[in-house]
Model the fold of this input.
Amino acid sequence: MPRLLPRLVKKLKETPLGGPRPRHLDNGKHAPHRGRPVYQSIPERPSYSAAGRVQSILLDDHSPVTNSRAYVRHKAPSPRVLVSPGKITTENAESYIPREMTAQEREWWSSPYLRMLSSPIRWCAISRRHMPSDFLIRLTPLQLPVPRGTKPLQIWMPDGLQHPKFRRRNGQLAMYMTCWKDIFSPINLSRTVPSRVAPKGIFHKLLATQIGHSLRLRIIQELHLLGERLSRTSRHKDKAGTILRRLTRQEFRDLRKTGAVPHQDAIAVMVVPPVNRVPSTGKRPIASIQPEIPSNDQIIPNPSYSDCKGQLPLSTLHRVQCDLPEEEGHPFSSLVPTARVPLYNGSTMFPSASQRAMLHKALCKILGAERRSRLGQSANGSDGNRPRRSISNSERGSHAFLLISDERTAKRADSAALAIALWRLRMWEGDAHQDQVCSGGWEVDGEWRMRHLRQCV
Done:
């Protein structure tokens, strides 16, 4: 009895008033990634010959028969962007120290597209093809409480869309579907392959809205983590290491005129003006990330390619202004296409005014951290060491924010993770698939999207 009562009290606290709660089919026990074993060099394998031996091989200190684990090869831990020498203590001094990335490896790591393509391969229940998981939406079955004597009810819920620091994955059993909101219409969901995990699982009517909110929330979370990381980094004076900056009004004017982004290592451009004041109250909306519950007419997602007059597109691709050497040094420069960078419109990317205010606030916070890190300035832009000089109207900052990622910025913070979150929202809204000249976009043999589009329209 003394051992039973504490467990009973714990269960009552977990389920107040004895009411059942929704639970995952695997009880929500997600197996975290196990740490790699300590890397050790394999000893030299002894000879099995009896010549020259004075004792049996079984009596050796490092016998391959009695101590076979010492001869098992283990993979070394993957290289890291930065290796802190202060973490090496006397206890693990003999263990394997992770290798720091080379300049070439940091350049690969700073590319959001290489990281998306190198994500784990999963099977899509709609297209019935294997694709990287960053191009898919992860769904896990949730067991709902039902009255006793009725059939169990299971629904599919999005999982793993937010950053692990804010919300971890709930379970191991999952199903993956293409990251495209048109797929989650009732007609298309009825064509999905029944999963062996939950063959009778249903999709609730607010699933598309919930996924869209989670993808937008992931962008805010990545901005928050990026600002925290930049606020902890040491002061630097290298302009090449800048991660986020405003485009000047002249640069933004040239971008709209020529369609070329004025930076070779740019990965995204975000046009996010301050939120206008509410005419009735005269105040700006309060920054918040709370979701807005749509009405019954907005529950079913509209096709991504519907004609919306007067509304800016969520994103448009612009070429990068790159100064390449002559063709003699690069004989394939005429065959390789020019890199393109997405330009995101904040008003379309975040329709909610309160969420757009949170986006603008997070971007300005990163700019303040960049300013303090580079020049030792305060958050409002004043510098105590230098007198403020007057600048012309064309040199003033615009509402366009330029995001940069290369092997130098990777040492300061991970800006490619923010670019991945932006690109996943772009795929969700359908902008990544509307270019019919490029069949399939980043997906090989993706003509099925175009066929599905023509059938829906």
Notes: The CA atoms of residues 222 and 418 lie 5 Å apart. The chain is about 25% helix and 15% strand. The mean pLDDT is 79. The two ends are 67 Å apart (CA to CA).
